[in-house]
Design a protein that fits this description.
111 residues; 6-stranded mixed β-sheet; 6 strands; alpha+beta; Nonspecific Lipid-transfer Protein, Chain A
Length: 111
């Protein structure tokens, strides 16, 4: 799972670097993000300076964004076999604890 999530972070950062409109959307945004794989490890990263930082294993105290799901759902999201909307609203296998604004920004991560 670490490699898949890390690859997704790299793709996200590349999109940010190449898209001025996306850069504007993330200008000044600083967020701590924790990713809990319910049947696996927990990871975290820090989003700042229009980039998601290195993915690290472990938990954070009081993250700004908490994303939780099982391994299969994360893989489905990353491989585009399931949409974030379906995982979040329909199957309820994806849980996101964040502000509405952060939830809307987060969808960019899975594009």
């Amino acid at each position: 799972m670490y490699d898949l999530l890390n690859t997704q972070i790299t793709k996200f950062n590349e999109r940010l670097n190449m898209n001025e409109k996306l850069q504007e959307e993330f200008d000044g945004v600083v967020r701590t993000i924790q990713i809990e794989v319910t049947d696996g490890p927990t990871y975290y990263t820090i989003l700042e300076n229009k980039q998601a930082g290195e993915l690290k294993e472990g938990a954070m105290d009081d993250p700004d964004i908490l994303i939780s799901s099982d391994d299969a759902t994360f893989r489905g999201l990353i491989n585009k076999e399931i949409s974030p909307i379906k995982a979040f609203l329909i199957t309820k296998k994806l849980k996101i604890d964040a502000s509405l604004e952060d939830k809307l920004r987060l969808r960019k991560f899975f594009e």
